Amino acid sequence: MIVVIGSANLDFVTQAPTIPRPGETVMGRDLAMFPGGKGANQAVACAKAGGAETCFIGALGDDAFAQTLHGALQAAGVMDHSIECPSTPTGAAFICVSDAGENAITVAPGANHSLTPERATTALRPLLASGRCRYLLLQAEIPMATNVAVAQMAREAGIRVAFNAAPASHLPSALLECIDVLIVNALELESIAQTLGIAAKDVEAQVQALSTPLVVVTLGATGCLVHDRKLGLQHCPTFSVEVVDTTGAGDAFAGSFVAALNDGATSTDAAQFANAVGALACTALGAQSSTPRLADVRAFLTAQA
Ligand code: RIB
Fold it and tell me: CA of 108: how far to CAs of 113, 146, 299, in Å?
């Protein structure tokens, strides 16, 4: 079983010819609403694309947005252990998607910031005690103190900790010490390297300077770089698709990568699987809604072979 602890947001999305620059107004098209939030997106990716038994712990308000988000988790087969925070708005994200498929996202965290260390550890404790949990998957859209507390709790219980360092933020050493699997993009890796005083400038050198057992750097259209302490450094190319919207593609990659590891895949095979999931997630609008089902990923990989 994988436990994902993180954010849940309702995404308000519009498509426009370009993403606005500072001070610019652009005219978008229709407004659409999608379930999102990096934590919930990754939980959906674990279950829907990865076929893994998955639990989600987040913090939502008691409003209509929360109902939509609970429904999406349930529909994807995620066991929802979220905490309800009365009189607190559910998280929301405001997303502009350009005609080239790029996005700009602003998050209003709302209840996500009420996921305190105490609330999260209280929700996690019985799941660890069940003896079924093998991976804990975290991101950086909830308070960092909460990530540290749950990562330490999981590590003490012998559970592997996977961390997707998105959005880029300062990572305390107490968290870095607990991480078994680190999933980053090049900017997030650079920020971690700076924090650790790693002087190397290129991605390959930075990744090799980290002491984390398994590090994956997502590189967009060129795939990902995997540094596995046992297998060394490998570049895994991704698949070419017609891009509609890249929102949530990183979450689809992270969730499905951990789901494949949980299923016993090698880091190389997990990266190839996650590359396929991430690519397919770019072919439709929305985050969770564009995450492919496991059967679709298998059919895609067969067609590409
Ligand atoms: O990674 C994409 C996600 O970032 C969106 O779903 C949005 O809610 C923000 O959390």
Answer: 10, 18, 37
What distance in Å separates the CA atoms of residue 42 and residue 176, rounded to the nearest whole number? 20
Establish whether residue 212 lines the binding site of ligand 1, counting it when its CB lies within 6 angstroms of any ligand atom.
no
Instruction: Tell me the CA–centroid distance for residue 265 and ligand 1, in Å.
Output: 27
Q: Does the pLDDT value for residue 200 go beyond 90?
A: no
- DSSP for 245-296 reads --TTHHHHHHHHHHHHHHTT--HHHHHHHHHHHHHHHTTSSSSGGGSPPHHH
**Is the shortest distance between the CB of 252 and ligand 1 below 6 Å?**
no
Instruction: Yes or no: say if 180 and 161 are a contact pair by the CB < 8 Å rule.
Output: yes
Q: What is the CATH number of domain 2-7+37-88+111-304?
A: 3.40.1190.20
37 lines ligand 1 (CB under 6 A): yes
Q: Which positions are catalytic?
A: 251
* Spatial distance between the Cα atoms of 212 and 179, rounded to a whole number of angstroms: 7
* Contact status, residue 159 vs residue 177, Cβ threshold 8 Å: no
DSSP 99: T
Atom of ligand 1 nearest to the CA of 247: 2
Residue 263 pLDDT: 98
- Reply yes or no on whether the pLDDT at 22 is more than 90: yes
Whole-Å CA distances, 38 to 43, 44, 102, 240: 9, 10, 17, 24
Q: Does the beta carbon of 11 sit less than 6 angstroms from any atom of ligand 1?
A: yes
* Residue 201 pLDDT greater than 90, yes or no: no
Q: Strands 9-16, 31-36: parallel, antiparallel or unpaired by DSSP?
A: antiparallel
